[in-house]
Amino acid sequence: MIKQFILEGTKRNGYYFFGNIGVGKTTLITGIARILTAFLTSPMQYMPMPKLLKLLTSIEREDKDKIERFERLPLLVVDDFGLERFTTDNQEALARDFFSYRYGNLHTTFICGNADVRKFQTKNMFYRQISDYLNDAEAYKVFEIKGQSRRK
Ligand SMILES: Nc1ncnc2c1ncn2[C@@H]1O[C@H](COP(=O)(O)OP(=O)(O)OP(=O)(O)O)[C@@H](O)[C@H]1O
Ligand SMILES: [Mg+2]
Q1: pTM of the model as a whole
Q2: Cα Rg of the chain, angstroms
Q3: What structural domains and CATH numbers belong to the chain?
Q4: Atom 23, ligand 1: which residue's CA is nearest?
Q5: Range 32-39, long-range pairs (CB < 8 A, 24+ positions)
Q6: pLDDT digits (tens, 9 = 90+) for 2-29
Q7: Ligand nearest 79 Cα, by number?
Q8: Which protein residue's CA is at the shortest distance from atom 14 of ligand 1?
Q9: N or C, which terminus of the chain has less Cβ within 10 Å?
């Protein structure tokens, strides 16, 4: 499985991993991303989705610069997907723009969450956009990580 990830990991838009709390999603996805870093022009970056959303809505100049850098990273790991809370339509729009830029430019984004976003019952346009990406088999592969919590 790891070999397959290395062969095709950066040729597609990414992977979406979901599974229960503590099954080892973060450990697995960051491990794969670190291996792939060796094949990239710049190191992979790790960012939890709640933190990314805060960054996207920031008006600070340095944060804007950071967003532009993050938009262009060859490999970004977005963790804890679904834990973010949208309070305005503008936040949804900013998140849509960020992910659509990465998607359109084939910048690989690994996404990791507790649940399958395609099953979210929501009017949220951002989640619908991500669901569309995941339903495109050429773009994304979706994995459910099953098992018991390894948290002690
Ligand atoms: N294959 C493994 N064998 C043993 N321990 C593991 C394994 N994978 C992860 N762990 C440990 O289990 C704990 C939970 O792992 P991790 O944070 O990767 O899970 P998670 O699915 O991302 O959890 P959460 O849903 O809370 O984000 C960590 O302490 C980690 O070190
Ligand atoms: Mg985790």
Answers
A1: 0.93
A2: 15
A3: 2-84+91-144 (3.40.50.300)
A4: 22
A5: 32/2, 32/5, 32/110, 33/75, 33/77, 33/110, 35/2, 35/5, 35/6, 36/5, 36/6, 36/9, 36/10, 36/75, 37/75, 39/6, 39/10
A6: 666 666 756 678 999 999 999 999 999 9
A7: 2
A8: 22
A9: C
